[in-house]
Amino acid sequence: MNWSMEKLEKLKALLSYAKGNSNFYHKQLSNFNPEELDQDIFTRIPILYKEDIIGKEETLLTISRRNNLTTEYTSGSTGSPLKCYKGISEVLRKTKDLWTFRKENARVNPKDLYAMFYAFTENDLKTDKIQLVDNALYLSMLNMSHDNLNDYYEALKEYKPKWLLGVPSALYIFSNHIIKNNYNINELSIKYVEANGEMLFDYQKKAIQRAFGPILYNHYGCREFWCLGMSCHEGNMHILNERFYYEVVNVDEKGIGELVVTDLSNKTWPLIRYHIGDLVHKELMNCSCGNESPIIKITGGRSQDYLKIEDWTANPILFHYVVIKMNRLYPDSVRQFKIIQAAEKVLLMELVPGKNYSRMIKQKLKEEIKERLPNQTEFKVIERDFIPNKFGKFKYFETYKRKENNGDGSKKSAISNYS
Ligand SMILES: [Zn+2]
């Protein structure tokens, strides 16, 4: 798709501002003159990979805009999260963009009570099974076994949130629980279900819609940019063409490539040609729903196998939670980790120690994790110099192949008992 004049002007302004005000882009764009920018020149600007800016996030900030910053971290599946900055104007604009979609899709508004599957609260690292904070009812993913799922259903009945938010894998497990137990969904007040944070697969979509009805919408986004797209009632993912410039690079013969995004409006912490890496179909298409912004088809992205030990089920984010907690208490203690479920009750943690790692920290880490696992689970920590990245994208949790899984090793295998 060729650039409009408007897009060209926005990108010129962004590049010029970033180059003039951010130390990082002063260097990164030293060979580029924003005034001479065109579509071809733009593709020669180096792609920005997360690994390149971890640890020097601050150098991307523009000098004049350092007050009142909002900071948050990516989940950091390598163990090192990226610190993301936004100014007040970005937060307001991005919040408005997201709520415009939600209002259009389901007439929910920011004051409505909602329920959310969560791992831990960002500020105080709390992991209560169920907690009500302001207008959010938090339901833990750290244990999604039968009894807990019943308690979540009861909580939805009692508190009557208007909508439900969660990663597809958690929504899928909960939906199957509803279907299996023949619960009457009319007892709840859920008018809208939003999936985010992982790739939404068709089998998940079907189960969630079977449980809740045709009220499921897919929110595509990340911590770096927040909302990058939202599905419509036709099920197509609309992008925010005015806010971002979307590119697809390394396209294969089927037209599928990796997503690279430039934020046209974040001048506080510019991200220019930032590699998201999710696999998308190259051509931006139009939709029949009435929304004129183009749609993208995401064909591969973040997905999640669940940790299952006999009847016990949990989102493996629980390991992240403990590693994040350790790194907050003892900075640079764990740099990277990977969990391998070697047998039903045997878990191995491969771990790349940071400079403050010690026997005491290892012991604490093991205790924290064992406390959250079923009794009699064997849990071992093995220190490594590095953890090889076999599949291009780092996968931090591997289950062993159970015999009942037909040996196809599909993504569904870890939760096959639910389908
Ligand atoms: Zn549409």
Structure notes:
Mean pLDDT is 88; it is low at 404-419. It is built from ten helices and 21 strands. The strands form five sheets. It has a nine-stranded mixed β-sheet with strand order 4-5-3-6-7-8-9-10-14, sandwiched between helices. A four-stranded antiparallel β-sheet has the order 11-12-13-15, with no helix packed on it. Helix 7 packs across helix 8 (202-212) and helix 9 (317-329) packs antiparallel against helix 10. Helix 10 (359-372) links the parallel strand 19 (346-353) and strand 20. The longest helix has 19 residues, at 88-106. By secondary structure, the chain is of the alpha/beta class. Helix content is 27%, strand content 25%. It binds zinc ion. Residues 232, 234, 236, 238, 287, 289, 291 line the site of zinc ion.
Portion of residues in beta strands equals 25-35%
Please report the first level of CATH classification, the CATH class of the largest domain: Alpha Beta
The secondary-structure class comes to alpha/beta
Strands of the biggest beta sheet: in what spatial order? Answer: 4-5-3-6-7-8-9-10-14
Our count of domains comes out at 2
Low-confidence stretches: 404-419
Tell me the distance between the termini. Answer: 41 Å
Output the CATH topology of the largest domain. Rossmann fold
Rg, Cα atoms, Å: 22 Å
Q: Name the average pLDDT.
A: 88
- Overall helicity: 25-40%
Number of E-type strands:
21
Q: Give the overall form.
A: globular
CATH superfamily of the largest domain: ANL, N-terminal domain
In this entry the ligands are: zinc ion
**Major sheet characteristics:** 9 strands, mixed
Under the CATH scheme, which architecture of the largest domain would be assigned? Answer: 3-Layer(aba) Sandwich
What is the number of helical segments per DSSP (H or I, 4+ residues)?
Answer: 10
